[in-house]
Design a protein that fits this description.
The complex is a heterodimer of chains A (249) and B (437).
Chain A: E1 2-11, E2 14-24, E3 29-33, H1 40-48, E4 54-62, E5 65-66, H2 72-78, E6 80-83, E7 90-94, H3 95-109, H4 117-130, H5 135-138, E8 141-142, H6 148-162, E9 166-170, H7 178-191, E10 197-202, E11 215-220, E12 223-228, H8 231-239, H9 242-248
Parallel strand pairs in A: 3-10, 3-11, 6-9, 9-10
Antiparallel strand pairs in A: 1-2, 1-4, 4-5, 7-8, 11-12
Helix pairs in contact in A: 3-6, 6-7
Chain B: H1 3-17, H2 25-38, H3 54-57, H4 73-76, E1 87-92, E2 95-96, E3 109-112, H5 113-118, H6 123-129, H7 138-146, E4 151-155, E5 165-171, E6 177-180, E7 183-188, E8 193-202, E9 207-218, E10 223-230, E11 236-246, E12 251-258, E13 263-272, E14 278-287, E15 292-301, E16 307-316, E17 321-330, E18 338-347, E19 353-362, E20 368-376, H8 380-388, H9 393-406, H10 415-429
Parallel strand pairs in B: 1-5, 4-7, 5-8, 6-9, 7-9, 8-10, 9-11, 10-12, 11-13, 12-14, 13-15, 14-16, 15-17, 16-18, 17-19, 18-20
Antiparallel strand pairs in B: 1-2, 3-4
Helix pairs in contact in B: 1-2, 2-7, 8-9, 9-10
Classes of the chains: A alpha/beta (249), B alpha/beta (437).
């Protein structure tokens, strides 16, 4: 599904990604772990289409299509979703109106008509239940005054509504207490299927207890230096990253 | 003959028609002398540094239009907030339209300044309030000299006005160029509540210049909620001079929505004369083409324990220009003042300009005052966020502009105004992405 080969990226002449290789197939869950500043969020942003980073070398394809030149919205229309570490506040636009807009814009891009209001409402209700979101929450302004947990839950709610093929969860566990973490993880797990894939980006193994990955990759200094099964996450939690760095020397 | 000379020479003919025993005979004469001495303000004056009136002073304005100009309700209905649920004081080319208005004398006066000036029973009110807080600057003086018609609102003690009051000035365009000088006097008694909407609307593209003066006196514990809707045609200009005096524990909010017109200058002045007053000044400005809006605000904290809140947001496209000149004065006696001022602007196009000049003059030592001013472009992170949800860049920008302006609407208390302004903002910005406004 997602194929990344020898990807190099920089911002203002500073190299951040230095040759990433990653293959994600439908039905798989991958986790990328790594210390601060290793390039995890940069990788997530580049896949989603942020143009402040310059891709200097390498391949980025999604379902066999080169997406490296596509705008973020075009990638979204093809099924790429990014759950933000710091979602943006939009006063005056309710959660409901925002998600309606997002869904209908995506449909428009595919040449479809707006989703009928009744169908939309039903879908919103269903997905809100999944994430234990109450009605009042849906009429609040998007992310405005939301707690950290509410913001993250809202991100996963949007993911549930948009039903992406590839969901990238950037530090979705940060700012969540254990109850909120369980709800969010539970929501994500219910959205897992053989047709979609998930890329989890995190500092800690904690989230991976709930969203169990098929593969764990360690990103250090712009390179994936080690990949392995889910047990690798425990090892990292226990020993930190230094032993890998030493291994590399 | 320039406009100034035309005005001065017309004054004597104008005065000649008025009764000599009018209580404001002297006031008018002094006022025209001030105007004659100072003339129209130019960019050489500090307060007019960023706004030039030159381009709108060169028309041959008609000063006393035909009294028979009229408009049909069906052509102007959309400019009213509501058909029946509001009082209306409506003027067509400066002349009162009884047909379009709904006034009252039932335990309060919502009527005309012309009758208040000419009928003896109003003399005490006129003598107490008329031209008492209006400044003696040249444009206000010009209005005072010619002040003849406008809204007269007197709300006695303990009265809650159950419907909003609309003051609407239409210009028919029957004259090639028209100058209007409406004069409003609003006296709001102790422990009362009133909502007022003011609008100036030209019905054609002919040139209109309005030099308006409004004096508002807010007595103890009164609550005034005032809305200025400025969405005029591209050849209509407005100089709005508003003066508000507040007594103790009164609350006065003014929202100014500047969404159209050629040149708009808002001189909005608050004087807090009692303790525990609260003043709110908020504005949304959305401009395009070569439109120009200048918000010139003054809040004078004179007594202790008062608050003022200013929040002006502006969106400027094309070659439009905006000015925010906000002055807060905290006098020596005004301890424990809380004064906040916020002015945020987004420049949509490279050719748009904003000049922001916050001024704080603080003479008391135990106060909380703050001001914040930003001029920027779109938040790239916010744009990216919306785009990753499948919303195209153009729509995403519109949505962000909408959200930016919308925050000012929270304090709007009349739902129908909120709905209308919301819709207007959406139209101006071109938000067409299917959410209810």
């Amino acid at each position: 599904m997602l194929h990344i080969k020898n990807l190099h990226a920089s911002v203002e002449d500073k190299d951040i990604l230095k040759g990433i290789n990653l293959d994600i197939k439908a039905g798989e869950v991958h986790a990328i772990m790594g210390p601060n500043g290793s390039g995890k969020s940069t990788l997530a942003s580049i896949v989603a289409g942020k143009d402040t980073f310059e891709v200097t070398e390498g391949e980025l394809t999604f379902n066999n299509e080169d997406i490296s030149e596509l705008s973020p919205e075009e990638r979204a229309h093809r099924g790429v979703f990014l759950s933000f570490q710091y979602p943006v506040e939009i006063p005056g636009v309710s959660v409901t109106n925002f998600i309606k807009t997002a869904i209908n814009e995506t449909r428009k891009a595919k040449g479809l008509k707006d989703m009928p209001a009744s169908e939309m409402l039903k879908l919103i209700k269903e997905k809100a239940n999944l994430l234990e979101i109450d009605r009042k929450f849906l009429s609040r302004s998007l992310n405005e005054g939301f707690s950290g947990g509410e913001k993250k839950r809202n991100e996963i709610f949007q993911m549930a509504m948009l039903e992406p093929k590839l969901a990238i969860l950037d530090e979705t566990d940060s700012g969540l207490d254990i109850d909120a973490l369980k709800i969010v993880a539970n929501g994500v797990n219910k959205l897992r299927s053989k047709d979609n894939a998930i890329l989890v980006i995190t500092h800690y193994q904690r989230l991976l207890d709930y969203i169990v990955p098929d593969f764990v990759h360690v990103l250090i200094d712009g390179r994936i230096v080690k990949s392995g099964p889910k047990e690798l996450a425990y090892e990292l939690e226990e020993k930190g990253y230094d032993w890998i760095k030493e291994e590399l020397v | 003959m320039g406009l100034k000379d035309k005005l001065v020479s017309s004054f004597f003919a104008f005065e000649d028609h008025l009764e000599d025993d009018s209580p404001i005979h002297d006031i008018r004469n002094k006022a025209i002398n001030i105007f004659e001495g100072q003339g129209f303000p130019t960019k050489k004056e500090e307060d007019w540094k960023y706004t030039s009136l030159k381009a709108i002073l060169n028309h041959d304005y008609c000063l006393f239009p035909n009294r028979d100009n009229s408009v049909e309700l069906k052509n102007v209905r959309k400019y009213f907030l509501h058909d029946i649920d509001t009082y209306k004081i409506v003027f067509v080319d400066g002349v009162y339209s009884s047909f379009l208005s709904e006034t009252t004398h039932d335990s309060m006066d919502i009527c005309l300044l012309s009758s208040a000036l000419s009928k003896a029973k109003y003399n005490p009110v006129i003598e107490t309030y008329f031209n008492k807080i209006a400044s003696k600057d040249s444009l206000t003086s010009l209005n005072t000299a010619f002040a003849k018609e406008g809204a007269y609102i007197y709300i006695p003690k303990n009265k809650e006005v159950e419907k909003p009051i609309e003051i609407v000035n239409f210009a028919t365009g029957n004259e090639a160029a028209l100058m209007l000088q409406p004069r409003n006097l609003i006296v709001v008694g102790e422990n009362t509540q009133v909502q007022i909407i003011e609008r100036h609307q030209s019905l054609t593209d002919n040139a209109v210049l309005t030099n308006s003066v409004t004096e508002i006196f807010t007595d103890k514990r009164a609550f005034v909620d005032y809305y200025k809707i400025q969405n005029d045609n591209s050849n209509a200009s407005l100089i709005d001079n508003t003066y508000i005096e507040q007594q103790r524990e009164s609350n006065c909010n003014v929202h100014t929505f500047s969404l159209g017109g050629k040149i708009t200058r808002n001189n909005l002045n608050f004087y807090q004369r009692g303790e525990h007053c609260d003043s709110t000044l908020k504005g949304i400005t959305i401009l395009k083409d070569k439109q120009h809006v200048d918000h010139n605000t003054l809040v004078k904290h004179i007594e202790p324990n008062c608050e003022s809140h200013q929040d002006y947001k502006g969106l400027y496209a094309d070659n439009s220009t905006g000015v925010f000149n906000g002055k807060v004065v905290v006098e020596k006696e005004a301890q424990k003042t809380n004064a906040f001022q916020q002015n945020n602007n987004i420049l949509i196009d490279d050719n748009a300009t904003v000049n922001a000049k916050p001024q704080l003059e603080i003479f008391a030592d135990d106060v909380k005052c703050s001001h914040g001013c930003t001029i920027g472009q779109f938040d790239e992170d916010a744009l990216f966020y919306l785009q990753t949800r499948g919303i195209a860049k153009k729509e995403a920008q519109a949505l962000l502009m909408y959200a930016f302006a919308n925050s000012v609407l929270e304090s709007v208390k009349i739902p129908e105004i909120k709905r209308r302004i919301n819709a207007l903002i959406a139209t101006k910005i071109g938000v067409n992405i299917g959410f209810d406004v």
